[in-house]
Write a structure and sequence with these properties.
The complex is a heterotrimer of chains A (695), B (160) and C (436).
Chain A (H helix, E strand, L loop, with lengths): L3 E5 L2 E5 L5 H7 L23 E4 L6 E2 L10 E3 L3 H16 L15 H9 L16 E2 L4 E3 L9 H9 L5 E4 L6 E4 L12 H5 L5 E3 L12 E6 L8 E7 L2 E6 L13 H5 L14 E4 L2 E4 L2 H17 L4 E4 L6 H15 L4 E2 L6 H7 L10 H6 L2 E5 L3 H4 L1 H14 L2 E6 L9 E6 L5 H6 L2 H5 L4 E5 L6 H12 L4 E5 L6 H6 L20 H6 L5 E5 L15 E6 L4 H4 L3 E4 L8 E4 L4 E5 L11 H12 L8 H11 L7 H5 L4 E2 L27 H5 L2 H5 L14
Helix pairs in contact in A: 2-3, 7-19, 8-19, 8-20, 9-15
Chain B lengths: L4 H13 L9 H12 L4 H11 L3 H8 L13 E6 L2 H4 L3 H12 L5 E2 L5 E6 L11 E3 L2 E3 L4 H14 L1
Parallel strand pairs in B: 1-3
Antiparallel strand pairs in B: 1-4, 2-3, 4-5
Helix pairs in contact in B: 2-3, 3-4
Chain C lengths: L25 H6 L4 H8 L2 H10 L12 H7 L9 E6 L9 H7 L1 H15 L3 E6 L4 H16 L15 E6 L9 H8 L23 E5 H5 L1 H7 L1 H6 L8 E8 L5 E6 L2 E2 H8 L9 E5 L8 E2 L6 E2 L1 H6 L8 E6 L4 H15 L5 H21 L4 H12 L6 H16 L1 H5 L19
Parallel strand pairs in C: 1-2, 1-4, 2-3, 5-11
Antiparallel strand pairs in C: 5-6, 7-10, 8-9, 8-11
The chains are: A alpha/beta (695), B alpha+beta (160), C alpha/beta (436).
The complex binds flavin mononucleotide (FMN), iron/sulfur cluster (4 copies) and FE2/S2 (inorganic) cluster (2 copies).
One FE2/S2 (inorganic) cluster binds next to loops of chain A.
Chain lengths: 695, 160, 436
């Protein structure tokens, strides 16, 4: 259909049919003030702020629901319009407390801005205001009714955006109020989307309230360190303290989305249990020592074991940066001369890459989940395990009417929107997928999202199934943590080097390492293998880079206090293979990034495996890891660039028996979650995986 | 929760009267009829109606505060509703309300300590041409004077 | 039951059975031309029925006065979803008490009207949305419906015509806003009565997303007579484009308040002085609310007019729902305006800012004013704030609150002046903060 021509404030505007006047105006830089309109959510036309004059219509019209029409003449700044706006703001302020200086939203409040720009100087309201006490609805969500302007953004984002529907409106008229789903409290995802979207200080977060004023923080855009979805989060930092996380500027792959972990679970950083000094085992007990002492103890031991041809093994992290992972495997392979390096594998990425060998564009991006016409989810409770991917799919359904299919072992939120859902029995996923064949064949295109239920040969079968549909199919192999994908791509693997290059002499895999009774040195970087396993080798000298005294750290001979992702620079690769940049927001006294720790140890050992600054290592990754030759400016400017790490046969069996998701829910996050006060405070609320909707 | 057999029968019929899958439509009438039987709308009742109509308790709670005939607080056995809207106002409705308040010893939306009467000033009840009008529970009384009101209340008191 | 005596000037079309013994029974109905129109309609095509209703110049009796036939024609012929007829029996406009009588005294006339409407738009289900306070009418309608089912006038293959139709009652629970047709739709779907965005209009996307015809009780009650006796006869009763009769609910300071069926276009002064028996106690006429509380008031000298939709529009008021409230010289217009605003503040659904906050502000201000705390600057402010609502709210309730208020401050400034400087109400109404 051809564009529609209209005039807004004397400017000629071209807009696609169906465009709302408010958006047509935005195209030419005219901002029509609005409270209730919110891009991507259904219009409610409730605030009446966006009234404009449209020639040949007697009454003012709301720009947020009126579509453009050929020859339409719109005025957004006529005296009548301005007077109407002023009137609306005056009405709004009648019941609104006028104590901006003590309001949590002061300085970031849309009502404050609008009043400043369009409002009247003095209020003519001399009557008594309604008063209602502030309420706490959950550890995360507080509500102050008198500040609420009833724009219904929170209600809509929770319903449409989150699919939770935990907020509603009670009472009538001036007594109308937003209310939580359990009379006086909330049981929900605790994502804070409602708080984030609230234009005023009505909904506030337990984490941030009254801790600071917005202008007293500096803001650092980085990537959430919890799950593999790779949401951008902007940390508000003051005095080396993270005060809040949000993504108000909507940059990054996730727009404004963040789940509870990305928005609030940064608090592990400031946990009193955080390790802030190296520890050395002396007389059987771990004691704090200086960095110099710890580094030299480790270097001595490593040199000594290496000299006598002892046995090394390394387990790397799903949370550390690509640079750290790359550097770690290089250190293991080149400095220690071992191929026994692995990480906790949570999804069968290598087999998928192998199965897709020869295909291009077969790996889906997070954007594909929002834009492709059909999505098949296999074996994952996405809303619990992959909140952002679930959000994308929900939005795809709402905005594009995407067809969603689910094959899961229990009820999942996605079923509400699915055209077909199959409850499967673990192990039988592929058979059930087969029964969708005819329906899927009729789709124009498909994205298949699969969890650890499909691995090894199953992945080959799945791709063969996809091929047989005769439509373009893309895949997402779900993995658990913020850089699980990077760990795999960077070669934290006994059989595959960076970029899935085969290694000539394979080392020990995860289980073999733990079972090797003759291990001399065991170095664990940012992982907790001893939580569920025992270490067979009693004599092993154990080095652990950690933030906390985990089960593994307790077995260590030396513990290096590691910096968290929020304290370092580098890159991570999300579940869809999108590379994004981490930016240090603060420093925690006594800690060092793992990259530096490894660098210092090798220096102490007198071995040179290259400079350990993150940008130098990234340069090396770009040249030596297949697919990581991504455009620098995109990453440097905080964007996401997708990699395709290999396009060819991956020459190693993936050991499907080692692949296991840790089944974190919305409110757990491996070790990190244990040290997040926020996550532990909401722990009683969540259902486990596949428990469907909570009441 | 279970209700009287008559009410259960009504609810069964009610749920069937709407198009398939539209049981939510029964929420408002179900709440009103249930309230008539059990006295007020408790959280338990909200959850019960939610279950029967296949909606969330919040979706029921949203409705309760919206409709002025639905009450979360227990009402008197006889709920006296005095219209003071325009036609009644100019024919003594407001004075009638003041009088009812004095006679019963309670204010607007209050209940007598013995739980027998509650009083509410209400909007037009559709009896404007026979003003001033009141409703006692669902019974209409037209052309009500203070004397007539006292008599009505007296009779009810004696019955109880 | 009837609550007032009929008047000889009445023209009995929809009330013709009122006062007959057992007027609500199906037998009485059948004995007095009942269901003749239905059988006639079954012989007509849907288009012919709609044409006939158009020709009758029947306009909506619920308030807006929209031409009924035209509305019927908006319902799409073909729809993948079943269509519905919804009868608006929410009757909540202050001053209005007529639908009540129609359902109480002649329920089968309404049922027949619904059947004809259903036939015309191709619907097979009808829902009568009755305000919760009218419990006895829900029971009365349920009785009539059961009777009609038992005798084959509802249900499958009605009277062997091959036409199926089901009718149900649905209870409201106290909300004026649910009389607004789209809020009514949300309400019947079990939600808060919040109005919907238009377009789409209910005729296209209505109840449960399906095409829906919404008409007032009186509107549909007039349909059997139109089909039975012909559109021309009905149209001829009123001025052009204003067919038939209206049930006028006369209330206020007159000798014989009551509901009377009068031809559309009947002179307002004659209503008051002839039908209504004149002003009570020989007082002077001060003002009239012509058609329910939403209508701008008329001053005494504006009252010599025919009561039809178009004439009232010309004098910037409305015929509304037929609630004609007559005020005498002793009426305090500040108190009257206050009561109107209390009503709208209480009934505002709260969805949009200007209505929710505007009505509350004005209520508080008028209360203070009436209590003697008024200032001169409040007088223009009342008008200004009302105008800040007018035409800017989501639905017509905001306008309904603004319009009478604007007319009262404009037409009766002296009543406001008289309350200034802490003076008590000159009409001797004590300050009574009642409606908290
Ligand atoms: C605030 C408001 C309240 C209304 N209340 C009623 C009502 O109680 N009864 C009614 O029939 N129409 C009422 N209406 C009018 C309806 O919206 C609608 O126009 C009418 O039901 C259509 O039927 P009709 O064309 O037969 O009049 C109301 C409108 C508004 C804006
Ligand atoms: S925190 Fe998230 S899930 Fe909970 S009410 Fe707010 S938007 Fe809904
Ligand atoms: S709480 Fe905030 S977002 Fe929700 S309706 Fe009120 S002002 Fe809007
Ligand atoms: S979805 Fe994952 S990446 Fe995004 S905020 Fe939540 S935990 Fe962090
Ligand atoms: S005008 Fe606005 S607040 Fe008032 S009843 Fe209509 S939608 Fe509700
Ligand atoms: S932005 Fe249009 S009405 Fe709120
Ligand atoms: S105004 Fe009292 S019944 Fe209508």
């Amino acid at each position: 259909m051809s564009d529609i021509n209209l005039t807004i404030d004397g400017q000629a505007v071209k807009a696609a049919p169906g465009t709302l006047v408010i958006n047509a105006a935005k195209q030419v830089g005219i901002e029509i003030p609005s409270f209730c309109y919110y891009d991507g959510l259904q219009s409610v036309a409730a605030c009446r702020m966006c009234l404009v004059e449209i020639e040949k219509t007697p009454k003012l019209q709301v720009a947020c629901t009126t579509p453009v029409a050929e020859g339409m003449v719109v005025r957004t700044e006529s005296p009548t319009v301005r007077e109407a706006r002023k009137g609306t703001i005056e009405f709004l302020l009648t019941n609104h407390p006028l104590d901006c200086p003590v309001c949590d939203k002061g300085g970031e409040c849309e009502l404050q801005d609008m009043t400043f720009r369009y409002g009247a100087g003095e209020s003519r309201f001399v009557e008594q205001k309604l008063h209602v006490d502030e309420q706490q609805w959950s550890p995360v969500v507080f509500f102050d009714a008198p500040r609420c302007i009833l724009c219904y953004r929170c209600v809509r984002v929770c319903d449409e955006g989150m699919g939770v529907n935990a907020l509603g409106v009670i009472n009538r008229g001036a007594h109308a109020e937003i209310a939580p789903n359990h009379f006086d409290h909330l049981e929900c995802d605790e994502c804070g989307m409602c708080i984030d979207i609230c234009p005023v200080g009505a909904l506030t977060s337990g984490m941030y309230r009254y801790k600071t004023r917005p202008w007293e923080m500096h803001h650092v855009g980085t990537i959430c360190t919890h799950c593999s979805n790779g949401c951008k989060t902007t940390l508000g930092v003051r005095n080396n303290q993270i005060i809040r996380g949000n993504n108000r500027d909507q940059s990054g792959i996730n727009g404004e989305f963040l789940c509870i972990k990305g928005r609030y679970a940064f608090d592990f950083v400031h946990s009193p249990e955080r390790l802030q000094s190296p520890m050395l085992r002396k007389n059987g007990a771990l004691e704090p020592v200086s960095w110099a002492e710890a580094l030299s103890a480790v270097a001595q031991k490593l040199k000594e074991v290496k000299a006598r041809g002892g046995k090394f093994a390394v387990i790397g992290s799903n949370h550390t940066t690509n640079e750290e992972n790359y550097y770690l495997q290089k250190f293991a392979r080149e400095a220690l001369g071992t191929a026994s390096i692995d990480h906790h594998r949570t999804g069968d990425v290598p087999t998928l890459l192998d199965a897709l060998s020869g295909k291009t564009g077969a790996l889906a991006t997070t954007d594909d989940l929002y834009n492709r016409k059909a999505i098949l989810v296999i074996g994952s409770d996405l809303s619990q395990q992959h909140p952002f991917l679930a959000f994308q799919i929900r939005a795809n359904y709402r905005h594009h009417n995407a067809h969603i299919y689910t094959v899961t072992a229990g009820p999942v939120r996605e079923q509400k929107q699915a055209v077909r859902s199959i409850m499967t029995i673990p192990g039988q996923e592929l058979e059930d997928v087969e029964s969708l064949r005819d329906q899927l064949k009729a789709e124009p295109e498909l994205v298949i999202v699969f969890g650890d239920a499909i691995k090894g040969d199953g992945v080959h079968k799945l791709v063969a199934f996809g091929d047989s549909l005769g439509i373009p199919v893309k895949y997402v192999c779900l993995v658990d943590y913020s850089n699980s994908r990077g760990a795999s791509d960077m070669g934290l693997s006994p059989r595959l080097g960076p970029g899935y290059r085969p290694v000539s002499e394979p080392g020990l895999a995860y289980d073999e390492i733990l079972a090797a009774a003759d291990l001399d040195v065991f170095w664990v970087v940012g992982a907790n293998p001893l939580k569920q396993n025992a270490l067979a080798s009693e004599k092993a000298f154990v080095v652990v880079n950690e933030m906390f005294l985990t089960e593994t750290a307790l077995r260590a001979d030396v513990v290096f206090p590691a910096a968290s992702a929020y304290e370092k620079n580098g890159t991570v690769t999300n579940v869809c293979g999108e590379v994004q940049r981490l930016k240090a927001g603060l420093q925690v006294m006594g800690t060092k990034p793992d990259l530096e720790i490894i660098g210092l140890v090798s220096k102490e050992m007198g071995i040179n495996i290259g400079i350990w600054t993150h940008d130098k290592v990234f340069d090396e990754i770009r040249t030596s890891v297949h697919g990581y030759n991504i455009p620098l400016p995109i990453v440097a400017s905080g964007g996401a660039a997708q990699t395709t790490p290999v396009n060819g046969h991956v020459p190693a069996s993936s050991r499907p028996d080692l692949i296991q998701s840790s089944r974190d829910t919305l409110f757990t996050s491996g070790s990190l979650g244990r040290y997040s006060k926020t996550l532990s405070s909401v722990l009683e609320a969540p259902g486990g995986l596949y428990s469907g909707e909570r009441p | 929760m279970t209700f009287s057999p008559e009410l259960e029968a009504r609810f069964a019929k009610m749920l069937e009267s709407y198009p398939p899958g539209r049981t939510r439509s029964a929420v408002v009438p179900m709440l009103l009829y249930a309230q008539d039987e059990v006295g007020h709308i408790s959280h338990e009742l909200i959850e019960e109606v939610a279950r029967r109509c296949k909606v969330t308790p919040l979706q029921v709670d949203e409705v309760v505060g919206y409709y002025s005939m639905l009450h979360k607080k227990p009402q008197g056995k006889v709920h006296v509703q005095v219209c003071t809207n325009i036609s009644c106002l100019i024919d003594g409705g407001e004075e009638l309300f003041q009088h009812a308040s004095k006679t019963l010893g309670i204010g607007n939306k209050e209940t007598t300590p013995d739980g027998q009467f509650s009083l509410e000033e209400v909007e037009c009840i559709g009896a404007c041409s026979w003003a001033p009008a009141i409703q006692m529970n669902y019974d209409f009384h037209h052309h009500v004077t203070p004397e007539k009101l006292d008599k009505l209340i007296d009779e009810l008191r004696r019955k109880q | 039951m009837l609550y007032n005596d009929p008047h000889p000037l009445e023209v009995k079309i929809v009330t013709k059975r009122f006062g007959l013994p057992n007027s609500a029974s199906l037998d009485t109905y059948l004995a007095t031309d009942g269901f003749k129109a239905f059988f006639k309609a079954m012989e007509m095509t849907p288009e012919q029925i709609i044409e006939e209703v158009k020709l009758s110049a029947l306009r909506g009796r619920g308030g807006a006065g929209f031409p009924a036939g035209l509305k019927w024609s908006f319902v799409p012929r073909n729809s993948p979803l079943p269509k519905y007829v919804i009868i608006n029996a929410d009757e909540s406009e202050p001053g209005t008490c007529k639908d009540r009588l129609l359902m109480e005294n002649d329920p089968h006339q309404l049922l027949e009207g619904i059947l004809i409407a259903g036939r015309a738009i191709g619907a097979h289900k009808g829902y009568i949305y009755i305000r919760g306070e009218y419990r006895y009418l829900i029971e009365a309608m349920d009785r009539a419906i059961s009777e009609a089912y038992a005798r084959g006038y509802l249900g499958k293959n009605i009277q062997d015509t091959g036409f199926d139709f089901d009718i149900y009652t649905h209870s409201g629970a106290g909300a004026y806003e649910c009389g607004e047709e789209t809020a009514l739709l949300d309400s019947i779907e079990g939600k808060r009565g919040i109005p919907r965005m238009k377009p789409p209009f209910p005729a296209v996307v209505g109840a449960w997303q399906a095409p829906t015809l919404i008409n007032n009780v009186e509107t549909l009650s007039a349909v059997p007579a139109i089909i039975r006796d012909g559109a021309a006869a009905f149209a001829a009763l009123g001025p052009p484009k204003n067919g038939g009769t209206r049930m006028i609910c006369l209330s206020g300071h007159i000798n014989k308040p009551g509901v009377y069926e009068l031809p559309v276009g009947f002179n307002l002064l004659r209503m008051i002085y002839e039908v209504g028996g004149g002003m009570r106690n020989g007082k002077k006429l001060k003002a009239v609310v012509p058609g329910g509380s939403s209508c701008p008031l008329l001053k005494a000298e504006e009252c010599d007019i025919p009561m039809d939709f178009d004439t009232l529009a010309k004098v910037k008021s409305m015929l509304g729902s037929g609630g004609t409230v007559v005020l005498d010289e002793d009426t305090c217009m500040v108190r009257f305006a206050l009561r109107i605003m209390k009503f709208y503040a209480h009934e505002s659904c709260g969805w949009c800012i200007p209505c929710r906050e505007g009505t509350t502000w004005l209520k508080k201000m008028l209360q203070r004013f009436h209590d003697g705390g008024g200032q001169k600057s409040d007088i223009p402010l009342i008008g200004e704030l009302s105008k800040n609502m007018l035409g800017r709210t989501f639905c017509a309730l905001g306008d309904a609150a603004a319009m009478p208020t604007i007319s009262i401050v404009e037409k009766f400034p002296e009543d406001f002046e008289a309350h200034l400087n802490g003076r008590p109400c000159p009409y001797a109404h004590a300050a009574e903060p009642v409606f908290a």
